[in-house]
Hints:
Layout: H1 3-18, E1 46-53, E2 59-74, E3 77-89, E4 95-106, E5 113-121, E6 124-128, E7 131-135, E8 138-145, H2 151-160, H3 169-184
Antiparallel strand pairs: 1-2, 2-3, 3-4, 5-8, 6-7
Helix pairs in contact: 1-3
Amino acid sequence: MTHRQRLSMIVVTLLAALGLAAVGANPASAAPNTRTAVPAAAVPSIPIAGTFTDAAGGTGSFAGSFTPTNFSARNGNLLATGTLTGTLTDSAGSAVGTVTRTVSMPAAVAQATCRILDLTLGPLHLDLLGLVVDLNRVHLTITAESGPGNLLGNLLCAIAGLLDRNPGAGTLAAILNYLLALLGQR
């Protein structure tokens, strides 16, 4: 695996971990990109899909992709700025138009699971007043899944992460921009 492929895999993993969430791209959220754009071939794109109400009052669809070019922190939140490209299709299935626009959208750190306990017991021999218990090797792993509706998982992940030092949005933006810059080098 080449250096470029390894860096691409790191960025893909980080973007997946960040769980880029598009909450809508309207002209008000469009922002000009003041930094040098990273070549699109080097940075993986994230698929984006959505719906809109077309001129006939039906539900049209949007299918496209988002390619990040820059990350920033605004009011303690991590933002991804990049190029949104895609096609608008009306409710009759006809292509209405295409979009190529620079947009900013929030990026959130998503934690799917956290390890609570990983316990390995070797073989055990107990003689309890004539009752003999032989237990072979036991490996117990308990993980918690956080997310909507997972009350116990959310609680245990929060408790398990109390002493973790989570980087702020500015630190994450700096790390992601550094990785994007590395991908842009030839």
